[in-house]
Structure formats: C-alpha cells, structure tokens
Amino acid sequence: MARRPKKIRIGVIGAGGISHAHVKGYQSNEGVEIVAVADVFVDKAQEWANRYGVEHVFDDHRKLLRMDEIDAVSVCTFNKAHAQPTVDALNAGKHVFCEKPPGRDVADIARVIACEKKHPGLKLKYGFNHRYHDSIRDALEILHSGDLGEVINLRGVYGKSQLITFDQSSWRTERKLAGGGVLLDQGIHMVDLLRLFAGEFTDVHSFVSNSVWNHDVEDNAYALMRTQDGKVAMLHSSASQWRHRFGLEITLTKGALTLAGILSGSKSYGDETLTIARTTGDDRGDPEEETRRYDNDPSWADEVSEFADAIQTGAAIDNGSSEDALNTMKLVYQIYCADPDWKTTWSLSDEAPDV
Fold first, then answer.
1. The pTM is what?
2. Tens-digit pLDDT profile for residues 245-291
3. Is residue 209 classed as helix, strand or coil in its secondary structure?
C-alpha cells in the first residue's frame, strides 16, 4: 500500500476575521492540519483555538515559529504586521501564506522579497483570493482563447458603504497601522484583476480623497491607467458606495465580458455572474449575450490547495506570488502618488529600492 504524504502542519498568526476564511480553506483539504495559533490578544487566540480544536496557543508569533512541528504559517494580522511575521517565518524555515495586502507600502514587500531570496526552498504566497472565483477564472479562460479578440478597455468598480463594516476593527482608519484606506484594503483586489486581464500599466492618473469620512486614509480613489500597448482601464475604489458593489467590464474587439457581484462572507455584493457578449458587427448595439450564474465559492479551498500542492510538489506559486504582490503594490502606490495633493500626505516611507 502506498504511503500517504505527511500532512502539512499549519500555524495561524492572527485570530481576526480573515483567519476564519483561511481556516475554511484549510478544513477542505485533507492534507493540511492546523496545530497552533498566535495573537497578541491571548484570550482571543484561546477562544479561536477552542472553536477549531487547536491545541497550541501563543501570545507572540515568534513563540509559535519555534515549534518544530509547524511546516507553514498563515499570516492573518493587520497590515502593519504582515511583513515582519512573514520575514520571521521565512527565517525560521516555514512556508508562508500571507493575506493581502503584503504590507503597508512597497517598502514592506521589498523587504520580504529580499528575505525570500535567501530561502529559495520555501514557498511564499499572498492572498489575492478573487483570482480563484469561478467567474474570474471563466472570464480569463475566454480572454485567453482569443474568441472575443483583443482587450480594448476595462472599467472596474469595487465599493462598500464605510471604511469599517460589520465587525471589523478601527485600525483600518489609522494610516500608521493600515498604510491606506479602501484602495489598499479592498480595491487592491480590483487592481490585481486589472493587471491579470490587461497586463502592466505604465501611465497612471488619479484623484484620491478622504472627504466623506474624514479619516486619516482615503475613502475614494479614482484612477485612469494605460498599458504600453494602449489598453485603458478606469478604476473606482469607494467606501461611500452605499449599495455594496463589485463590477468589472472588459471590452474586447469582438465582444465583452461583464463580471458582476462576488460571493463573499458578507453576502452583500449580489449574485456572482459573468455575462458574455459576442458582437456580429451589425447588431446595432444589442449583441447576443449569455449570462452564467455562480452559486458556489470554491476560492478559499482552491487557494489553500495551490499553496499545499506547491509545498508538497515544489511547484511554483501560480497566483499570488511575491512578484504578483510587488507589482500590484507598486500600482497601488502609483495611484496614490499620481494625485499630487495626496502624494504629499501619503508618506509612510520612501519608495522601495529596486528588488
């Protein structure tokens, strides 16, 4: 009888809301076992451990990293605390799955990549979860097939009603902890998808504002971007979108792809759909359309499975690599700095050196 591969033993750093999404993914994978949790609020960590039947509880991630039994960690802390635990874990010989964003600014991810290069045998993955939604994957497959021609332009809107929604904590409004507001917290998913569908953007113009909620971070960001080969994208990332909304329209030379709604834990972004339009050239602006609806969200399970498979087989990280994270963070940074008024106030650190 063939031996079953050893389970990958996971330690979770941070017992906040996003950690539960990571657990959902891990629980769907028989090759993974959660063995420890760490949080500076140890009572919160203990409650988390009791909920999931986890034995080892720590008040400091460095104590968790000393466990020989742990193969990999999930970093589920607030933004300021993403980079350092990731660096510490890599230096401790652990694989890392870190939630987005990779840090507060480009300098944070540059520091992580410098450490990653010292540990080529370890896997580092960032949580750009939207890439694993079936609507996104289907749209990408259609685009790559060439059936609808080449991309002309893209329009993306991702918005919620406040900077702090549901049971989230107020650190999201403090720049020294969060790094940025709605663009870095939520809009980064749309920035990542625009890169996924169009490639890298070389020209960026923006308006960034915190005039609605008057917090230390932005509540609206508007960007107009162009790739070197002429694809143009418009982005609106908003924390005053009273009706929560996710929408991405991709216009191509032979049709269009319209993504609307996204299945999420809050269930507040509407049904997840993909509408495929095919133009015949004489349809008078009313082309033939097909709409696909998605009732299941496999994203967390599939994201964790890719991480686990990469650890077990040595395969490269296809989605959410450190290079992806760096390029997405650089584009977020460009959007901030393209508004000269916002650039003068958005100064956590100087732009990162080349990596």
1. 0.93
2. 999 999 999 999 999 999 988 889 999 999 999 998 888 889 999 99
3. strand
Strands 201-209 and 72-75: what pairing? unpaired
With contact defined as beta carbons under 8 Å apart, do 49 and 35 qualify? no
A 10 A CB-CB count for 296 gives 9
Whether the per-residue pLDDT at 352 is higher than 50: the answer is no
Tell me the C-alpha distance between 31 and 15, whole Å: 22
Q: How far is CA 132 from CA 85, 114, 301, in A?
A: 25, 27, 9
Question: Which residues fall within 8 angstroms of residue 240, CB to CB, at 6 or more apart?
Answer: 159, 161, 212, 213, 219, 220
Map tokens 């999930």 to a residue.
74
The answer to whether the beta carbons of residues 42 and 67 sit under 8 Å apart is no
Cα separation values, 151 from 200, 201, 252, 257, 284, Å: 13, 14, 4, 10, 20
